[in-house]
Amino acid sequence: MTFRNAFCASSALAICVAGTAAFADGHSATITIATVNNGDMIRMQGYTDQFTEETGIAVEWVTLEENVLRQRVTTDITTNGGQFDIMTIGMYETPIWGANGWLVPLDGLSEEYDVDDILPAMRGGLSHDGTLYAAPFYGESSMIMYRTDLMEAAGLEMPEAPTWEFIREAAAAMTDRDNDINGICLRGKPGWGEGGAFITAMSNSFGARWFDMEWQAQFDTQPWLDTLNFYQGMMQESGPNGYPSNGFTENLNLFNQGLCGMWIDATVAASFVTNPEDSTVADSVGFALAPDTGLGVRSNWLWAWALAIPAGTQQQDEALQFIEWATGTEYMQLVAWNEGHANVPPGSRTSLYENPVYAAVPFAQMTLDSILSADPNNSTVEESPYVGIQFAAIPEFAGIATEVSQEFSAFYAGQQTAEEALANAQAITNEAMEAAGYQ
Amino acid sequence: MARAVTNQRKALNTALAWIVGLAIFFPILWTILTSFKTEADAIANPPILFAFDWTLENYSEVMERSNYGRFLSNSILIAGGSTILGIIIAVPAAWSMAFVPSRRTKDILLWMLSTKMLPAVGVLYPIYLLCIRLGVLDNRLAMVVILMLINLPIIVWMLYTYFKEIPGEILEAARMDGASLKEEILYVLTPMAIPGIASTLLLNFILAWNEAFWTLNLTSVDAAPLTQFIASYSSPEGLFFAKLSAASTMAIAPILILGWFSQKQLVRGLTFGAVK
Amino acid sequence: MATQHSRSAARIMMAPAVFLLLVWMLVPLCMTLWFSVRDFRPLRGGDLGFVGLENFGRFVSSSAFWPAVATTLVIVGGVLLISIVLGVMLAILLDQPMWGQGVVRILVIAPFFVMPTVSALVWKNMFMDPVNGVFSYIWQFFGADPVVWLSEMPVFSIIMIVSWQWLPFATLILLTAIQSLDSEQLEAAEMDGAGPLSRFGFITLPHLSRAITIVILIQTIFLLAVFAEIFVTTGGAFGTRTLTYLIYQRVLESQNVGLGSAGGVYAIILANIVAIFLMRIVGKNLDK
User: Which chain B residues are Cβ-neighbours of C184 within 8 angstroms?
Assistant: First the structure.
């Protein structure tokens, strides 16, 4: 009996294996695209069939969570692995990879694609030495999203361009612990693209910077200490439980459940929080510019998720065709037609904001204003040697900033003081910069 | 049994064991239940155990978005192939260690186990570069070989401990009767070792199925197994508990069902020589 | 009993397995050693030349190194402790006569079949989430403030997740061992007036020592390499950075392969220290 059972089990396995081995793929032109599992990309996947119909080019998607995606595409590009024909990368990677010659320059784009229609800020951030290396699928800055009903109940009015002081007061006024209403929800999650991005953009408005002109880390300066203390103080007063582990998704879900008074985050979130299907507070959301402290720099960032072609792909022409389709105006019309203008991938093209129908979307103007007010070349109050707002566009930054943001999060979680966190950050950064030969 | 167990005590044992068993199983049960909820029900406060509107929406959405069949067949192929290949290579090795031991046998065995302690991340770049050089990135056969190598030490170890429990006299008797080495292994040893081989097979199938570092890094489309399927459902934008649960259920259901049906075989050989 | 003939046959039969593992060990090992003395930074153009032992010095002198070693040992030790203590208790419980033993056993072994990534995702989001997690509801139900598991007690949370996955394995091996225990011996001891505790201490536990050793050996091998659970839950923050994770940060996040490879060499050394230590015990216990 045992013998038979065991035999059955193993032969069943063998048959399964033999069965699947018979699978064989035989496509003619297939491109493989690595992308992140964000809402807009998933929507795009749904429309891929249309592209295949139009061009006869089949598309294979490798959709991964952001951290896994970064790990995969970076390994692949640096080793010239050639696993992907198109990679979804951001404003941080593009200029670095472009400078290394790892990406195909996008100078062969067709006339009708109208590359000049891409917002100058996005085009600049995705170029190296004036050559475009990745086409923006959507672009974003950050801004304040707030609950108009709670703001009114607190007897306050949100200015177009508030200061951090106002935000802190408003947050405290909106907080209602008995009903689980948190005045403000912000990212605290470790990782350079999560809490790291937020706190860096915030520190800019407090007059802090990552490096001085000699590439010395600046965490021992007063503005950084002010930033951390202000952030942590405000979150203790008015933030949600467990904010040190909250990232974009966590805050989005809190806001949509009606548990946040204000949320300062990516402008793309505006279409999610105003979508009645996902959000319980869709009809009472207002928008304002990210706060400042009067030093002349606001705390909004600039980012784009963009499609790039790794050098060495065998399917360069097909890949280019896809990029033109996905980031062109035709795709935007397709989405606008099927799902409404609010769901069009935002922040990449001027023509979208000139469209009167889109201008009627409640967050359109504020998104554009936020993007226009972000300047990666001039992001800090004092002069800095790097390009980028919530990051410094040098290869070492991602590694350093992830560790630094882990130190900060440990401070938010009460595991160390702000001074300790900053001292550790200073040591980590200088250590890495020295190893990299900057100092 | 010398002593009769009172029904009362048996009932107490039963109750306790069931409570503990259900507590351990609860996360899986909760995942399966959540996969049938709407996203709103999935985060309802207080949580709803059974009385929600059961829906298959999440499953249809996942099926629409991902080519589940391909991920599944790759998982079966890679896990199954690597296990069978591993056993083919390990049976002779374990046989010779168990029946013709030398002074070095134990050293070799322990050395084999120690190769499993190499940290995988440390060698990601070397292996990745090697795969490019050999042109086997995203290649099913390469994944079969790599996962076989990863699990080979465990396979050899398990088979060795199992073979050692087979009395040598039987083999000797067979030899007296004029059986050749090949016949000895094929007709005498293998039948006796079938339960051990079966459980080795099952355990390593599970381990290979769940391997998530190499399968994630060395595959993209053609050879991508379910571990990669899961990576596209973790922490997207917006509410995702229900969809994540559906994808998770789809990723673990095949192995869970296989494991349950074959748990007798699995348990029988899963002693690693712990029992003498 | 072994003839010259069967000895050489045995060698030939062992050869494929030994050869393959030797290649699988040596090729990456040599490449790791090679990279560890080079300044290899892919984002800066790849191999930037020989740097001697600089990477080794840098890796150890980094403030993250010793805490990472400590965290590694705490996580491995914690999971071993929990899975063995609970495993013994569970094995004894399951060995008692009861109704539906087969079903309970199925329930108990189920976590072993779950992919580490899936279990980490499920625990992190559906149980440990401070707002929408099941634990938070339970805490609220009893009027307590929900615990923010992953930032307030991060190492414990990870130990808990990993223990959940490995408890079934320990329980199964220990259960098989308990079932082989001679029940007459226990009854005789009971007749002689030994209480349940001393029966456990003097008869059951010694009988289990071999099984416990095996559990420690096999689990340690897997636990030293724990990665997915940390990657998914905390990303190495809040003091959960193990040596494996530190190497991952150096190699992939910082893209410093030379430095990471030096870390890899250290991890191999640590693994071997643990291995030698373990094998001493195992070797002794297996000879019995």
Answer: 2
Outline which parts of chain A fall under CATH 3.40.190.10: 30-140+302-367, 141-301+376-435
Contact C211 B100 (CB under 8 A): no
Per-state percent for chain B, helix, strand, coil, to nearest 5: 75, 0, 25
* Cα-based angle A424, A429, A434 (whole degrees, multiple of 5): 130
C273: contact with B, CB 8 A cutoff: no
Q: Nearest residue of A to residue B215 by CA position?
A: A72
Peptide bond into A223 cis (omega under 30): no
Record: contact A60-B221, CB cut-off 8 A = yes
Strand, helix or coil for residue B227: helix
0.95 exceeded by the pTM?
Answer: no
Which of C56, C151, C157, C241 is the best residue to mutate to test the A interface, defined by the most A CB atoms within 10 Å of its own CB? C151
**DSSP line for A230-255:** HHHHHHHHHPPTTGGG--HHHHHHHH
Q: What CATH homologous superfamily does A141-301+376-435 map to?
A: Periplasmic binding protein-like II (3.40.190.10)
Q: What is the domain-level CATH number for residue C71?
A: 1.10.3720.10
Exposed (0-12), middle (13-18) or buried (19+): which is A174, by Cβ within 10 Å?
A: buried
Quote the CA–CA distance of B78 and B216 in Å, as a whole number. 13
- Which CATH number is A30-140+302-367 given? 3.40.190.10
Q: Clarify whether residues B47 and B105 are in a common domain.
A: no
Q: Are residues B91 and B216 in the same domain?
A: yes
Give the one of B30, B118, B272 whose C-beta lies nearest to C126's C-beta.
B30
Whether C191 contacts chain B with CB within 8 A: no
Alpha-carbon distance A3 to nearest alpha carbon in chain C (angstroms) = 20
From B65, B77, B137, residue closest to A81, measured CB to CB: B137
Nearest to C18 among B108, B149, B271 (CB): B108
Q: Does C204 touch chain B (CB under 8 A)?
A: no
Per-residue pLDDT of chain A (439 residues; tens, 9 = 90+): 344 444 444 444 444 444 444 443 444 689 999 999 998 999 999 999 999 999 999 999 999 988 889 889 998 999 888 899 999 999 999 999 999 999 999 988 999 999 999 999 999 999 999 999 999 999 999 999 999 999 999 999 999 999 999 999 999 999 999 988 999 999 999 999 999 999 999 999 999 999 999 999 999 999 999 999 999 999 999 999 889 999 999 999 999 999 999 999 999 999 999 999 889 999 999 999 999 999 999 999 999 999 999 998 999 999 999 999 999 999 999 999 999 999 999 999 999 999 999 999 999 999 999 999 999 988 999 999 999 999 999 999 999 999 999 999 999 999 999 999 999 999 999 988 988 888 7
Q: Count residue pairs from A and B with Cβ separation < 8 A.
A: 132
Which domain, by its residues, includes B15?
A: 7-59
* End-to-end alpha carbon distance in chain A: 73
Contact B199, B269 (CB under 8 A): yes
Judged by CB atoms closer than 8 Å, whether chains meet at C235 and A402 is answered as: yes
Task: Answer whether residue B246 is part of any domain.
Answer: no
Write the CB contacts of A146 (distance below 8 Å, at least 6 apart in sequence).
A158, A170, A261, A262, A263, A285, A286, A287, A288
Q: State the maximum Cα–Cα separation within chain A, in Å, rounded to a whole number.
A: 82
Judged on CB neighbours under 10 Å (0-12, 13-18, 19+), C121 is buried
- Candidate from B122, B212, B275 with C-beta closest to C177: B275
Question: What radius of gyration do chain B's Cα atoms show?
Answer: 23
- In chain B, whose CA is at the least distance from the CA of A6? B198
Nearest to A32 among B198, B220, B264 (CB): B220
CA distance A201 to A392: 11
Quick check: helix, strand or coil at residue B131?
helix
Compute the C-alpha angle B108/B110/B114, nearest 5°: 115
